[in-house]
Design brief:
- This protein has 138 residues and is an alpha/beta fold.
- The chain has a single domain, classed as Response regulator (Rossmann fold), CATH 3.40.50.
- It contains seven helices and seven strands.
């Protein structure tokens, strides 16, 4: 048996935010306590699942719709096409969601939509709506 086969599966509790704005990434990481989960925020140019244990072990991804040079639609489709991530929850964050954009995000494979800038209670509610409630206190 290889070392990988002997390892127990990692419990997925963390959230990975993909956000092009540095201040917004810092704000996302500041939500760990409010969300009762580890939070990792990455620049879209650094979103490389094969190179990141944090990404590989994420329970959910919160992707900004407007990623600058990279499109959230591409990330959603890529995650859904990869068997390793197909079951993970995906929220699309928008500053001004419209019915058309929300429907498009859902058609691409997102589980839900949340608002940006970040609000801990609103994010917790959005995660709960897609089946990812706050973890029970230890």
């Amino acid at each position: 048996m290889s070392d990988e086969e002997e390892q127990e599966p990692t419990e997925r509790t963390s959230l990975v935010f993909v956000d092009p704005d540095g201040a917004s990434r810092s704000a996302a990481e500041g939500l760990e306590e409010a969300l009762a989960r580890p939070v990792f925020a990455v620049d879209p140019s650094e979103f490389k699942p094969a190179d990141s244990e944090e990404i590989q072990n994420a329970a959910a991804f919160v992707l900004c719709w407007d990623l600058g040079f990279r499109c959230a639609a591409d990330l959603v489709e890529g995650l859904r096409a990869d068997a390793a991530y197909a079951d993970r929850k995906i929220l699309i964050a928008m500053e001004a969601p419209t019915r058309r954009l929300v429907l498009l995000a859902m058609e691409l494979g997102a589980d839900g939509v949340c608002l940006r800038p970040w609000d801990g209670d609103a994010l917790a509610a959005a995660l709960e709506r897609v089946g990812l409630p706050r973890p029970a206190a230890a």
